[in-house]
Structures
1.
Amino acid sequence: MNLNNYWKTSFIACLLLASIQTYAQTTAWAYFTDKCSNETDYFKADVCLDYVQLLKQHNIEVLGQSKWLNAACIHASDRAKAESLACVARTEVLGKYHVAQEQTNEDFSYGQGDRQIELMGLDLYHQKGYTGKGVKLALFDAGFYKVDSLPIFDSLWANNQIIASRDFVTNDTLTWRESTHGMQVLALAGINYPDSMVGAAPGALFVLARTEDAPTEKHIEELNWLRAMEWADSIGVDIIHSSLGYSEFDSLEGDYTYFDMDGKSTLITIAAENAAARGIFVTNSAGNSGNKPWYYITAPCDGKNVLCVGAVDSFGTIAGFSSRGPSADGRIKPDLCGMGSKNTVPNGEGILMRGSGTSFSGPLVAGLVA
């Protein structure tokens, strides 16, 4: 199930819980075994009317129904009659719900990276067991230097959390010899290095793609991003995050202008919008041009369905370098901010240091989504 469907189901369950408390002891859900439909999207397919009619034929009053839950609401006194029917998988009294992963036995020690986690309340989510477990988070970057060998990433390898990797610059196997930038992004997103640093989603599964050739800035890197997106989609990722942005390029490449930041004019933004249309949640760093002549966000942050992440300091004040909005067509951008000033990140030898940029606020927010 992709994230869009997950959140829809969670949302409707919350609405139901809020509106049916007075019926909790007198009504129940009768969950059907299947749907009588050829519709490929489970959430669009209606409840099987034949099953509903069958309930009525057995003098079971149907109070309502839900196609998302694939169930009919009935009187609790009719549960036994409903359960006797082959089309009913089970019944449950309304209000009898529980939240999976309500608590966890893991005790995270955030060390030097505590503030960047606590500023967004991620420590409270972790305490309740929301660590991104089972969520596939893809990171597109310029390289993941020594992720295969630095002790700070041992937990990811020990728990088989890095499930795929690919170099789209060389169109070959990822070698772990390129830029430290992606390595730092991964650390912020998901490491668990006790008493030193813990990422935003230490339980997530990670898909790593090198799409950026760090010494250059060429339009071919947008194509790399697109190909990585298609590859990540084939793996079934839930979230794509990139701490990359495109506006000005090398000589003779041809720059974008601010007017191209309209959500529909650049290749990388169109690719990001296509990913979102396929149910993938896309987050992207806003850029670090707030105190430079460019000033504005960069592609693909201008996408209508791309969560654009700016940067604040540890006090919640907007960082001067954080790229500003709005998009060229007048939409509010960035969409939100995370801590991106004087963050705790590892250097090339795995030693913790301080670093700043929306590249560092972005993975924290992506981890929060997970």
2.
Amino acid sequence: MGQRLILAGGGHAHMMILAHIRNLVRNGHQVTVIQPSDYHYYSGMGPGMLGLTYTADDIRFATRHVVERQGGTFIRDKVTGIDAAGRTIATSSGLTLEYDVLSCNTGSFVPFQNVHGDTSTIFAVKPIERLQEAQRVVISLCASRSTPHIAVVGGGPAAVEIAGNLRRLANLRGRHMPRITLFAGRGLLSKLPAAIRSIARESLARQNIAINEEGYVQEIRNGRFAVGDSEVCPDLIFMATGVRPSPLFKASGLATGPSGGLLVNEYLHSVEHTEIFGGGDCIDFGPSPLDKVGVYAVRENPILLRNVTARLHGLRLIPFDPGSKYLLLFNMGDGTAIFSKGPVCFRNRSAFLLKDIIDRRFMRRFQALERL
């Protein structure tokens, strides 16, 4: 007898399930995908889209089209609640849907609660599609003001990539050159090795991007904020202060981990409810903490497909192995990337070309489903 499978989100960790919807439907199952947009944007290429290296079509996957062509149901909506006891989900539009198996890939968001007043000049790095609007605003700003000031708030990899690609965008399309400042709290890339920090500083300095490490931005009010003893009033603010899992799970009373994500075991299902699975940024992996990086979502793909399918058919599950150290590649916006794996660390054009090849290959693999 067919089961009801709901996918909450069509992100990186769900790509292989999305690719196999036709088989699931042929086996009698009802597959419903719920996502706020008809498209899923690949975050690893988001800064490159901002900097005009990629178009929106290059970095997005037509989730709705792929789901419906394979006989699944797509609902443009957002899952806002999970009733695990009743096996139902609630959406922002007021729908209540029943499931037999639920898999969550609801992603993450940039948390910053202390933003008040006018937010028209503030852009968060997620959702990625908002970077398209930000791109247009930057071009307009650089056309209308002689030396506009753009602030990037955050000291992690996302902030570094955004700052570099803002400079690239201004170089390519700006009538006037903006002043770009990276407000990095108490230390740029403080969680990464010293070699990466040094290389990033050199690249940013070459691109005339200032780094402020006088303190954390505690509050933004009407586009203004204080750092140390100074008040800053930039023309545009990009928020890249790190990401947190969706608050969905804690709000639904499910077991969560240290970051607030759905707490899952080695089989990628909830430690409390074996019919609820999860992957990507929205989970906390119980056996060992995982960094919020896309490589783990990609590695979770085949396990989620295998275990969700197994749960639908009453078969044995297999454990997820996070694997060894992963490759870091940061797009610096100037045609180079920082390469880091283990003790090896450098920045050059070849590193960017490697990142470009990896990212484009990933997208082509799943965008091919759109043409089947």
